[in-house]
Known about the structure:
Elements: E1 2-7, H1 12-23, E2 27-33, H2 38-47, E3 53-54, H3 61-71, E4 75-78, H4 86-94, E5 98-101, H5 105-120, E6 125-127, H6 130-142, E7 147-154, H7 172-175, H8 185-193, H9 195-207, E8 215-219, E9 225-231, E10 236-240, H10 246-254, H11 284-295, H12 297-315, H13 323-332, H14 343-360
Parallel strand pairs: 1-2, 1-4, 2-3, 4-5, 5-6, 7-8
Antiparallel strand pairs: 7-9, 9-10
Amino acid sequence: MKKVLVLGCTGSIGxxxxxxxxxxxxxxxxxxQAHSSEKKLLELxxxxxxxxxxxxxxxxxxxxxxxxxxxxxxxxxxxxxxSAGLLPSKIVLENGIDIALANKETIVMAGPLIKECAKKxxxxxxxxxxxxxxxxxxxxQLGKENLDKIIITASGGPFRNYSKEELKNxxxxxxxxxxxxxxxxxxxIDSSTLANKGLEVIEAMYLFDTDISNIEVIVHPQSIVxxxxxxxxxMLYAQISKPDMKHPIINALYWPENRYNYLKKFDLFDxxxxxxKPRFDDFPLLQYAYDSAKLGNTHTIVFNAANEIAVNAFLxxxxxxxxxxxxxxxxxxxxxxxxxxxxxxxxxxxxQARNYAKELI
Length: 361
């Protein structure tokens, strides 16, 4: 039986992970962590008969190490939102424990360092983003040596068909109304601006050791094709399933096996699949992500940090919807040169970018 520790247990990834643990008898829950929802955390601890709980001490490395020592997991699901997920990812891998990673900021901020950490401690990074899970599975089948292009699908968000003029007057309430996925506030806003897709492009570059020029984005509103890969002979291979985060989570938890499970089988009868090019000019954060990836790891840290601060300001109604992209662009054009050589330098660059974004706001 595989012992699973769930970080961010009250969020979307955490909730889906617990549903899997409840229904698949191969897994047992050994620990739960939540940022601030202490009441819900206690309720989940009682429901799953799991006494080992941790609240917002996630930034305390000693407290988190103690948590790992007590729970002794075989795999950790990191469903923490935002940059707060990087430190626990680092500590999990340093302990030689596999990580089912939904926290894309871990890779965007520290991709080269985190991959080296995993290699050094013989631990596996198993992607849980639906797109990266799809690419991971497809490449395992196809073989990395046969890859030509990675094609990441995007729903396009709620404003895919909005004109440039209509995008000037987006309210917080409208931006939080995603047509396909139920997610936390920050990632929902990111999906609407295509910043989330930009983060996923950067994540794919680091995760799959490929040049940014080999990664494309295609808008697919139905969210049924979760990503594609093109082989050298020009053929496209896709992963197709219902838009449900349980699929990538269960893939990571069972890896390297492919097992029958309790999830309903998907069929294509009466389904319509459409695909469009992204509108880079109207959703510039996607272009800024590509630009950051070309410039290197310092700029990917800055892109993520500035966007996180700007999105929080928009949610607090301090800035407009289109100001998010303006602030990110302004922070990116600052003089960022040195590549981080340690996790401490990653956090330092992240902090500098956040402070500059706050000054702009």
